[in-house]
Specification:
192 residues, alpha+beta, 4 helices, 29% helix, elongated
Length: 192
Amino acid sequence: MTAPARRPARRAAPLLALALWALTSCGIPTTGVVEAGGPAGGVVPTVRVYFVVDGRLVGVPRRVAAPVDVRSAVESLLQGPTRLEGAKRMTTLLSPPAPALPTSPADTDTDLEGGGRAAPIDAVRVSDEGGRIVVRLSPWAGKLTPLAVDQVACTAVAAQRVIRPGDEPRPVSVAGGDGRTFQGTAARCPAG
């Protein structure tokens, strides 16, 4: 009984060799390594920034430069809402840091790049003081309302959640351009 079982295997061996030869010699020459740009970048980091709609905070996702930090998140907030977000009645209570610049022509629902203004150099300084994140805004910020403070504090809290997922965010102090400092916590930030 073993002899008939070997015959099909003997017939299959030449067919298998022919199939392997066909696959390996398809006529495409080897090229070696071809340089075609940089390495894959992966996921672009996003953080939530908080704008105001009808007197309440609303978080929207923004792309930020890697690595995510509190300063880059607050600078993204200071750019203001995009045209599309403005059309959804989103606004900011923070004084505009610079004249409006045009946004990209493709200002659509997928636009996460930020708003139409560039934050001035040194508009934001962030430090860690005794377990508290302190966000200092330059004098252009002027007098801050409680809701404007919450915009900055909640954006700083959201950045902390991206930096250290699962950790409890540290409290945030916001120092305005008029020298006054306000305290903020994650408890005052809307979910999501």
